[in-house]
Design a protein that fits this description.
This protein has about 850 residues and is of the alpha+beta class. The protein contains 28 helices and 22 strands. A hairpin with an 8-residue loop joins β3 and β4.
Length: about 850
Amino acid sequence: MLNNLHTQLTKWLVFGELRAHPVRAIAAIAAIALGVALGFAIDLINTAALNEFSAAAKSLTGQSDLQVRGTQSLFDESVYPLLAERQGVSLANPVLEIDATVPGQRSALKLLGIDVFHAMELAPDLLGVPQSERPFDTLSDDAIFLSPAAQEWLAVKPGDQLRLQSGTELISLRVAGGIVRARPGQRIAVMDIAAAQWRFGRLGKLSRIDLKLDSGVSREAFRNSLSKEFANRLLVTESADQEARSANMSRAYRVNLNVLALVALFTGAFLIFSTQALSVLRRRSQLALLRVIGMTRGLLLRQILLEGAVLGALGSLLGLAAGYGMAALALRFFGGDLGGGYFPGIRPDVKLDLISVCIFFGLGTGIALLGSLAPALEAVRTQPGPALKSGSEDVAMTRFASPWPALICLATGAVLTQLPPLFELPVFGYLAIALLLVGGIGLMPRCSALVFGFLLNFLQSRAALLRKNQVMLLVLARLSNTPNQASVALGGVLSSFSLMVAMAIMVSSFRISVDDWLAQILSANLYVRTASNGDTAAFSPAQQKMFSTLAGVRRTEFLRTIPLSLEVTRPPVIMIARTIDAADPGRTLPLTEDVIDANKIAAETMPLWVSEAMLDLYDYRVGQRVNLPVGDRMHSFTVAGVWRDYARQSGSVQIRLSDYQRLTGDLTVTDAALFFQPGISSLSVIQQVRALPFGNMVEFADPGEIRAISLKIFDRSFAVTYLLEIVAMLIGLFGVAATFSAQTLARGKEFGMLRHVGVTRKQILQILGMEGSLLTGLGIAVGFVLGCVISLVLIFIVNPQSFHWSMQMHIPWLMLASVAVLLLLSSAATAVLSGMRAVAGDSVRAVREDW
């Protein structure tokens, strides 16, 4: 019987509160739902994209046990017979991978040269499907087979001619048919390996060799033996390594997106806190009465936490449904990279994962419980006698005003900023930001009392001002004497605005730093390259000489890029060979202060300039001697300096083009930078290049165009970040509106008493408007300071530990001022609109409970 009564009472209290204040409940539920939806959607998108990308990569290696790859993109095919005849190897399948340049397209075509007879046993899905009347097309030197996605992308069908670029020439290949099986959206092509080597100038070269081991051979032992034998020449990998490489390539980007999504959920936690705190204060006498009639502290604690859990559960369920819908739409219309460019050429489908569902449901509900905990503890600690009396609401929140927990949070956050990354992620940096935010909000009662107390004393000391500002006197008197209630209203403003300020400063700093970096590295008047995609286009030495004969060109510089695989589980490091003056490398490279004179290094080594990522990922240091695979063997280099590279977070190194050509014998280049004589226009030089024998096969770009395109790509990459900032700000505004509305309605008796002593409705509305403006103004001021501190952590801790590059701090004053004004006006308007309802009733009825 008692259990039934308790269950019924619990239902009345929970659903009665929801019915009594549906708007405030809807605001709290919406905040949790938005946070859960964004986080769940991003997790679904990233998981689907990563799984599909890994599956597509695995499909290229078929049923092989191990893959042998070069440290560079190509290695000599003389290795193949050594592996094919090695004891323990059942089958060795040679593969040539080419990112074929497609004229008129922004992306390259992944082309695989395969040995049909070996691939038939090891990777049958990659076999071409010839027409019935031409069964030997799989061995033809002019036939190419395309996956369905590649045929759709290139708008070709079997029987059509497909033109691909090799050097500055076009190769015409016949589309002979499709492929046995390819992943949805996977753009790949296959052709005979000998034909691919010949057509694309890769004679005697392979990209990898897939190995099938004999039954009973230990894969791990065989791999270790092979790795020792071919150390520094070849890398022995397996499918798990490829999956790890794919995950590492985008891990920092994915983690940062998830953290940004949780910003909305974090803001929602403060909205839950303010909702529950105001609810407990408003029902203070009711809860005390329940204690008097026999409800224990434990039951009351569970009751209030249950109310918060119901809000969190409802918000989480709505968020899960909305997140699934958002993920499905995003994958359908935008693909799986979310602007990051990490998963091109795939078409993932969203799939529900029960573990992720439980995690995000628990996260949303847990956040709501956490927001309800402090008000619940306050309710159960309050003595029933004093709580039955009116006017003790602010006293009930005095425990929240102690500065020590907040100071401890701030101090701990400061300590965490000095810790190194964990698993190459800024885990402690994120924790520091959370603690700084919690500590800043925890200091608001003390800050509110000091600021409004100072303003009240200042007003009271000025008799002339006091006579003209009686309404302001009432406002400051209340705010200075009820700082704890004021801090509840400020929590949502402070959390949303400070995070928005921090993100805006970080993104603005990054964007301006990238723009300055582009201005420094794009010093030429015109850039010419054979193609914007693929690795099959290049300028020959004879073609390079033609650039120096152009009228009006005073100097030319050339560039060659080469991927180097230094670790099997990391993306390749990009080696850039270019013209660099060792006496003055800063003229070409955006160097940091960490640099030594390249002319003073040991004669037996060559200078090497590394990006900031190499310091973090590979522990390189200036002055250190390192060995790198260039050409067919290892060579010794000395790190002569560090340069900023915002284009490659996986690491890059630069060497002199003359050193590269001497070590490899490769005299081709991919890019040419042209420096004009004074008064020469780009148009005249472009016309001269077009007149060259290969002029129709090149692309041009001036520095302004490259900067514009690069910044456009930057904005696209941060589009999700901008969206999450807006959502967090909207949640903050929503929370401000709900908080002021709830506080205003809870102060009905106060307004009734003011009406009794002669204060007009208009003056009460003025009081509310001023309170809203002053509270929000204080929240904006403190939020700006706190946001700047958090931005320092983002710029100098989180960003370098996530993406391995540094930047200079820039504050977008105009944007922040515009948002601050919008927030200030919105808060004042919300307070006034809420007050119109509060002052609409009869003043006698408002104070009747106090008689």
